[in-house]
Amino acid sequence: MGGGIKVHGVPISTATMRVLATLYEKGLDFEIVPVDMKAGAHKQEPLISLNPFGQIPALLDGDLTLFESRAITEYIAEEYSDKGEKLLCQGCKKVKATTKVWLQVEGQQFDPIASKLAFERVFKGMLGMTTDPAAVEDLEAKLVKVLDIYEARLSKSPFLAGDCFTLADLHHLPIIYYLMGTDSKKLFESRPKVNEWIKKITARPAWVKVLHLQKQ
Amino acid sequence: MAMKVYGDGMSACVARVLLCLHEKETEFELVPVDLFACHHKLPSFLSMNPFGQVPVLQDDDLTLFESRAITAYIADKHKDKGTDLTRHADAKETAIVKLWSEVESHHFNPAVSAVIHQLIVVPLQGEKSPDAAIVEENLEKLGKVLDVYEERLGKTKYLAGDSYTLADLHHVPYIYYFMKTSHAGLVNDRPNVKAWWEDLCSRPAFLKVSPGLTIAPVTN
What class of enzyme is it (chain A) (predicted)? Predict the structure, then answer.
């Protein structure tokens, strides 16, 4: 396995960025197969055979085909656990279990709100649509309740699952990156522990490489 | 000491954990949390789950929340006992189980839970009527997800392959409640999905948990 890893996706897609960050953290070689979203390529072959939901990213590693970014990142983190940065704490039972909790918190509590907010603030503009201020207000009101919980959590440990950076932190990077480029950044900057955490995780070399891809 | 699960069997998310415990033949104690009296919002509960939701699992000095993290923990801790819910012996198979678990989390769950919230929970709260637009929008989304499942289940007996895993288990409580609404046709009209559902609800673990799933739709 490895060496022939292909990612079908584009570097501006949040879900693709999640996978790319993980691959860079692990120091793995891979190839990006661009998908022309504007031309609807994600709803056609070859992608639709790789992901029946017609979404990016899809990952090929040898004869394994995966979709759903969070399943892909977990596969990479476990399959290549001895390479690059540690993204899952295998040794300690408590931290391993706590990582599972905060992986779910990102997927079930943070992302449903934050991704809709990023859609309003950022992606609607890219698609020629207009931001709905009432939706932004409603989503920000919901997000602050989640961020207050994060503030309390990060007052107890530097990263969400404990003392080390894990996938649970990484999964947040793409949406936070986009929201920090909008007025919604005030929600993060006004919470000292959250703000400190964001500064740490966005400074990671792997993440910087992902952003560099966007400029190419 | 037996694991403790905080919550009631009528909660779909609690039932998800109970199904896993039964599949893993693991003893546990169910500690009721009175949601109607808002005990899940008390400081004593919030210290276990700051999001104020059931279920919570306590296993010795470990306290966990988020039902899918709890099931993953139980399945991993007891991987050599009961049903193999994660196919842990093969990395590729494990990844496929995680993939279809993510599909449940991000495609199936948002649509089905929105429908159940409108048709079952909202009437129970008594203040307003179900929002027909939300129901229609989410039934359409759910139909598209089930179309993908119909094709998938034409190739494999279960979502992640030929054996029952967490990827199937996570669906069970919400499908059970969904089948009590007048929209059960979305499942029944898709032969592979229907056969899969009938298999899931014939499992002994389900027969132990389903008597607790007591919430019923007031209106359709």
Answer: transferase
* Integer Cα distance of B73 and B94 in angstroms: 14
pLDDT digits (tens, 9 = 90+) for A146-173: 999 999 999 999 999 999 999 999 999 9
User: Among A101, A143, A149, A156, which would you mutate to test the B interface (most chain B Cβ atoms within 10 Å of its Cβ)?
Assistant: A101
CA distance A67 to A6: 12
Contact A197, A185 (CB under 8 A): no
A contacts of B107 (beta carbons < 8 Å): 53
Q: What are phi and psi for residue B162, nearest 5 degrees? A: -95, 5
How near does any CA of chain A get to the CA of B105, in Å? 8
- Name the residue facing A71 among B64, B73, B95 (closest C-beta): B95
Contacts (Cβ under 8 Å, ≥6 apart) of A67: A50, A51, A53, A55, A57, A58, A59, B99
CB B164 within 8 A of CB B196: no
Query: CA-to-CA distance for A206 and A20, rounded, in angstroms?
Result: 8
Instruction: Answer whether A25's CB lies under 8 Å from A210's CB.
Output: no
Contacts of A55 in chain B (CB under 8 A): none
Residue B93's φ and ψ, nearest 5 degrees, are: -65, -40
- Give the gap in angstroms from C-alpha A208 to the nearest C-alpha of chain B: 27
Is residue A93 scored above 90 in pLDDT?
Answer: no
Q: Is the ipTM of this structure higher than 0.90? A: yes
| Residue B133 · residue A37 · CB < 8 Å | no
Contacts of B62 in chain A (CB under 8 A): 93-94, 97
A110-146 pLDDT, tens digit per residue, is: 999 999 999 999 999 999 999 999 999 999 999 999 9
B50 contacts A149? CB cut-off 8 A: yes
Strand order in the sheet with A5-8: A30-33, A5-8, A58-61, A64-67
Rounded CA separation A216/A151 (Å)? 35
Question: What backbone torsions phi and psi does residue A141 show, to the nearest 5 degrees?
Answer: -65, -35
